[in-house]
Amino acid sequence: MDSGMIRIGIIVAGVLLMSVSFWTYSYKRIAVNFAVIWEILGLALILTGAVPVLSGWIHMIAPGTRFVFFAIAVLVLFLGFQSTIMISQLAMKVRELTMQVSLLNQENEHIMAELDEVAREVEESHEKDIVCG
After folding, report:
1. Residue 49 CB-density burial (10 A; 0-12 exposed, 13-18 middle, 19+ buried)
2. pTM of the complete model
3. DSSP conformation class of 61
4. I want to staple 24 with a disulfide (CB 3.0 to 4.6 A). Which of 29, 56, 74, 104 is the partner?
5. CB under 8 Å to 18, separation ≥6 — which residues?
């Protein structure tokens, strides 16, 4: 695989990375800060492949290993993106559980206040029965 094909592959990988990042953010599968990071990385890939000065290092790699390095880089990008999606989903679940715990604590405080009020009323009625009785 010659360096021209590798450069085109880098550009395509950047476009795909930006597209998938935007798509996953629009469906709320990834947090906005991670989406921005992946968009910037995709733009960096596009610039690296499109600008010859930035992709001059490709000529230094042996022709047989260019494709292997490219495949490994794509695999690392894919695994990193998958990890980011998992982290984002876990963070969203933690946020949701925190809200539920907060609501339960608020409900618990309300129930405890009602219980204290009922206990006072029972105690007052018990004292009235003792005094009257």
Report:
1. buried
2. 0.74
3. S
4. 29
5. 38, 39, 42, 43, 46
Q: Kindly state the DSSP code that residue 44 receives in the 8-state scheme.
A: H
The tokens for 112 are 């405890």
Helix (H, G, I), strand (E, B) or coil at 133: coil
Selection from 48, 55, 46 nearest residue 16 by Cα = 46
Give yes or no for a contact between 24 and 82, defined as CB atoms under 8 angstroms apart: no
As a whole number of angstroms, the distance between CA 57 and CA 79 comes to 24
CA angle (125, 130, 133) in 5-degree steps: 115
User: 84 with 30: CB under 8 angstroms?
Assistant: yes
Tokens 């963070």 -> residue? 91
Q: What is the DSSP letter of 51?
A: -
pLDDT of 74-108, one tens digit each?
A: 999 999 999 999 999 999 999 999 999 999 999 99
Q: What is the pLDDT of residues 43-76, one digit of tens each?
A: 999 999 999 888 888 888 887 788 888 899 999 9
